[in-house]
Write a structure and sequence with these properties.
Shape: elongated
Largest sheet: 10 strands, mixed
Strand content: 15-25%
Low-confidence stretches: 112-126, 319-325
Helix content: 25-40%
Length: about 325
């Protein structure tokens, strides 16, 4: 009996998710296509693998027996593809959270950019060739990882995270308030987050889709917010500078564009920290991923990127422990 890899992958993903719609989303296919693949597999095997009903699906006894060997078969197939392609294939890396400039950190880790400024380039641990993608957000990057379109990704990880993924915390970056030069707090050397309660939080998209800004607003009782259209950092900050009661948040080391009337003020007592992580699919064996993880750890230690004092700093939620490949 010849088993189809796409059908096996659809079955395993549906078993992990317990829901055909969510499983289809992680595979970047329609729910109808996923259902057809599973139905064909069941027809080939001559038995039902799922009990269908209600809002989700459950494995039958046959499905539970089939799940372990199906996972092993997929792992063997992935290993065979990797062996055929060879270890010299570039590591495919994507990023998200583009307004916060994730590439500047990844460039420092990979040793391909300047650490502090022109003429001060600092090589990190050796990293092989990288091919960069153009992810929009964490869900789209998650789907690309699970589908095998990319090998790793870099950005801010937050729950819920798919069980088939692992991540390593790379950097905890202090966050500043950016506001108009006419804002009442613009001349302060530093500002507490709760002092911003009377200001308007200017967000580059719907707040319920921007996890960090959403949690910041909840934690510090920022009741007033408004949504902009993300047309790039310079345009966004020009909008902030245009009104004296607007503010937004930006990681402290993001290079600011030349926007007239804009101020960046450190946040203290507590200092919010933006958590950058490397993300990959569990079981990925690309040698370049091991090199990139090692480079992240080396740079984090050298630059003290992971310092955190709960009496001084604020993180939106406890960060999950690091995972090895």
């Amino acid at each position: 009996m010849d088993l189809d890899g796409a059908q096996l992958r659809a079955f395993v993903r549906a078993a992990e998710e317990g829901h055909f719609g969510r499983a289809a989303g992680t595979l970047a296919i329609s729910q109808q296509a996923l259902s057809k693949r599973i139905a064909r597999l069941e027809s080939l095997l001559g038995t039902e693998l799922f009990d269908r009903g209600g809002g989700g699906v459950r494995l039958t006894e046959a499905g539970r027996r089939f799940l372990g060997p199906a996972r092993q078969t997929l792992a063997a197939a992935d290993a065979a593809v990797a062996a055929a392609v060879g270890e010299d294939r570039p590591l495919r890396v994507d990023v998200w959270g583009h307004l916060y400039a994730p590439m500047r950190t990844l460039a420092q880790v990979a040793g391909t950019g300047t650490a502090e400024g022109p003429g001060q380039a600092e090589r990190a641990a050796p990293v092989g060739d990288l091919v960069l993608g153009h992810g929009r957000d964490l869900p789209s990057v998650t789907a690309a990882l699970l589908h095998g379109d990319i090998d790793a990704a870099f950005g801010r990880v937050h729950p819920p995270l798919h069980t088939g993924l692992a991540h390593r915390l790379v950097r905890l970056e202090p966050v500043d308030a950016v506001l108009s030069a006419d804002h009442p707090l613009a001349a302060e050397p530093a500002v507490r987050p709760d002092q911003l309660r009377g200001s308007l939080l200017w967000a580059p998209g719907p707040l319920d889709r921007l996890d960090f800004l959403h949690q910041f607003a909840d934690r510090f009782a920022i009741r007033n917010s408004a949504t902009s259209v993300n047309l790039g950092l310079a345009h966004f900050l020009a909008e902030v500078a245009a009104e004296p009661h607007r503010f937004s948040l930006l990681p402290a080391d993001v290079p600011l564009p030349d926007v007239p009337g804009l101020r960046s003020v450190p946040l203290v007592r507590p200092t919010p920290l933006y958590a950058w992580s490397l993300l990959w699919r569990t079981g990925t064996r690309h040698r370049g991923l091991h090199d990139l993880i090692a480079a992240c750890a080396e740079r984090a230690g050298h630059s003290r990127w992971l310092e955190y004092d709960p009496a001084r700093d604020w993180l939106p939620e406890p960060q999950a422990p690091c995972h090895a490949v």
